Amino acid sequence: MDTIDLDSNATTPILPAALRAALQVMEDQYGNPSSVHGTGLRAKTVLDEVRACARRVLGAPTGRLMFTSGATEGIQTAVLSALCAIRARRAEGAGAGSLLVYGATEHKAVPESLAHWNALLGLDLQLVALPVDADGRHDLAAMRALAPDAAFVCTMAANNETGIVSDLDGIAAALAGSPALWMVDCVQALGKLPLALANTRIDYAPFSGHKLYAPKGTGMLYVREGAPFTPLLMGGGQEGGQRSGTENMPGIAALGAVLAALEAGGTFRTHAELCGFREQVADALRAALPGVVFNAPFNHALPTTLNFSVPGLSSKELLDLFDAADVRVSGGSACSAKAAKPSYVLDAMGLPVWRSSSAVRLSYGPLMDAATITEACACIARCGQALRAAGLLDTSDTPVAGGLLQLTANGAHTWLVLDAASRTAAVIDAQPALAPRIAALLCGYRPVASLSTRAEAPAGDDTIALGERTLRRIVSAAGVCYLLDDTHAFTGTMAPASLAAMLLADDLLADDLPAGMLLCPATEAVAPFCTGVQSRREEDVDLHLAAADLATFLAAHPDAVLVDVRETFEHAAAKSDAINVPLGRLAQQIPAWLARPVPLVFFCRAGNRSVRAAQCLRDLGYPMAWSLSGGVALAGTPQRPFALAA
Ligand code: PLP
């Protein structure tokens, strides 16, 4: 199955006509547009034609229109131009305002550039974030109040995380009579909103090519006729001295092909069609993910962006799930997608923390087609089923599989012992932050004990029966620990070394703790999963298996088992043939592997989780554990039917 890209606000693939235009320029019209000979003139013609087309599409017959490397460069140029003008006005003693006002939900390129150039030019202007309302739209009353003192105002046409469309007419009205210069970041507007720049008071409008099917490293900057301008790049005087450096002709030609398609019509979907797609996707999300909330009102948003949160699920979990189903989405904005921080955009809208820290952005471009949307909706339905089967949705009706389950939050571990036969369960070191998740996982089980390794000398029975299984409490000078039959010991914050010392000193424990028993700590500081009294880290052991070497490895190790360590719901959404042992089930599975060792190749999405699993086994003295480098993302899903040597 092909990947479905629903992350177009981050970047887009290349329009086929744009690819052809870039190739043609590289093959036939490769000249330098500054050269005066025929080859150069042919290149110059391309440049002029693209610029003329851009002026028509942007509604900018007047003013400057230069090609840049992207919006970040356009933003720098606009900021530098505005700040230099403010400095000059100040030097002349003319009123220039003292505030640099930017929308609280701007792309980071804007406030970062403002702060950078403000400091570099020694202007000491005050940066002020213009608040937005609960819908993500600028607070126009606040804008009116700031307008008289504003030197430079930066707002965006449409937001990259939420798709919220700004009320540019309202902002222009609020700025009436203000000396402020005005930049509007139009990156997410191109091809999605009508633009008639020269009819507005907008002074600067940066654009980015790669957000609309042109290559990365392409962009444009419009500067209103008469607006102050200072070049960012000096040199050979290209672009009429506005932006030196030999022009990126393949990129400009490709951008030209996109602009030509916009002008001609027929290539991109209409607003109404895109609204229809959004309804379809929203319905699919509502059906698959009960309780889903949309973080931006559709009536104020681009129909190509859906930002949502699901109670009880983190954005990382949702991203991993969608990724496993081969649907690419992003958490918050792409730039901050790696860090699971709350979204500053949603924070600025005043959304509750759980929504801003678990938000997922799903976005597509105007090239989207009905068949892909239908396929995406089917994948979303499959994601919902996978979550339901894993017991992570309110509507889950089948209890999760029995056994031992580890949950980790904020560096601490909670352990669930689930006895499938008797449907009884015990929780060890429950963390309040995990209460909803624990409650969801215990559905269909009767909790018989909530135990803590932190309590000094807890009252109550020393032995807890869970069907055929037994949990036994041991209290010693070193702390409280619980033994699950003779396989696992829940050892709290005790380090294995102090546990070993305790064993020596305490005859009772020495008898009680069978050799090979896995120690399941309460904190990552002791071990990320489980460990043993004898565990030790061997340095210089290479447990990475390169994707290119996998086939050879499997041929050499016919008994090797591929183990998908992604979450159960990711595994279900991915339809992989490999066995699934999520990290939270590692401690449950390890005794079986230790009893009958076979070569194990762990894999996950990107190779981070699998390397931790392989390391855990190696530390336990298991010599045959490897991690597939780069994971499914680089190697594809390893498909081979392997039996679980349990
Ligand atoms: N502004 C907005 C609204 C964006 O979405 C982005 C890209 O994420 C940028 C600016 C930066 O654009 P570029 O990647 O072309 O520098």
From TrEMBL:
The keyword Iron applies. Transmembrane segments: none annotated. Pfam families: Aminotran_5, Rhodanese. Keywords: Iron, Iron-sulfur, Metal-binding, Pyridoxal phosphate. The keyword Lipid biosynthesis does not apply. SUPFAM superfamilies: PLP-dependent transferases, Rhodanese/Cell cycle control phosphatase. CDD domains: RHOD (cd00158). One of its GO terms (molecular function) is metal ion binding. It catalyses: (sulfur carrier)-H + L-cysteine = (sulfur carrier)-SH + L-alanine. Belongs to the class-V pyridoxal-phosphate-dependent aminotransferase family. NifS/IscS subfamily. This is cysteine desulfurase. The lineage of its organism: Bacteria, Pseudomonadati, Pseudomonadota, Betaproteobacteria, Burkholderiales.
